[in-house]
Task: structure prediction
Amino acid sequence: MAWKTLDDMELDGKRVLTRVDINVPVENGEVTDATRIERVCATVQDILARGGTPVLLAHFGRPKGKVVPEMSLKMLLPALEAAFGTKVHFATLDEAEAVIEACEKGHVVLLENTRFEPGEEKNDPELSKTYAALGDVFCNDAFSAAHRAHASTEALAHLLPACAGRLMQAELEALEAALGTPKRPVLAVVGGAKVSTKLELLGNLVEKVDILVIGGGMANTFLAAQGLDVGKSLCEHDMTGTAKEIAEKAAATGCEILLPRDVVVAREFRENAPSEVVKAEDCPADAMILDAGPDSVAHVEQAIDRAETLIWNGPLGAFEIAPFDTATNAAAAHAAKATASGKLVSVAGGGDTVAALNKAGASDDFTYISTAGGAFLEWMEGKVLPGVAALG
Result:
């Protein structure tokens, strides 16, 4: 690993500028889901245990460089104090030096929303110098913001001794295990609505993985590219040429692509709509494909059994409504079981993916589930993430 971790840093008596992602859902001033705050605890508690003072840098919402009172991080203080089990002091950037100076050992300082600063999203070197003057060490624990070159994620990392926090470290180690130097065969499951949003991802994966399962609305575009009638299904007919190119690239690199062999079709998109299973080539002209069928699921399960490493992004069908969540639930449960028995390293990420795996009750048994969204996808696409590169 080219980047340092907290283990490589001297923290006793140091001010540790710690970039975190606590962009949590809030309703009426109350945090409704504290998952992101909970995931930061390991880093904060580690810094405190080793005699450092964590000074948290974080964004919230999109205030576009202006002070928007309802996006102030001040409202998160009760949730942060509950999670960390210690006092958290709040400061605007102007007050920061005095508040940090007065902070007792064992307490935490939270700085105001970084995106209130006009220079934050411009990666402004002057703003990063202002941040750097407040600390001795920079710790980035916000992998989810690592694909953005901002003053608090990228420029700052060049001005102080820099390292990854515990969450960032876990994320990078999981991704390195999945795509960097994985145990083979490597299986990727990629689902979702549109090929157009995952072009770079598919193009990168066919060069990196041994088996690629394509599901969801994307699969319909690949089926149409083979000349099959997909009826009224969600399908990007203008992308069939691209789908063919991806299939040809896969054939050239020896990557096996698995598409649905049978499908679940319905005439309307609603919960428990009357549905039937037909072969992929037999979709009725007035119906739409909403899930992969049982034969397809059996095939995906066999691929999971062959694999040593699994990367998962996106559902296999319209997982939000029953019974069109069946394929996703079954395949996820199979992957979870293989992981729990020690046969498989499984890494999953992306918004819909996390929701689908939670719904399937499979999340707890996956090796690692990334909540990073865009950063996870860009990593899978083979892109360099500025916030990670800056730690090198």
In short: The first helix runs from residue 35 to 49. The mean pLDDT is 95.
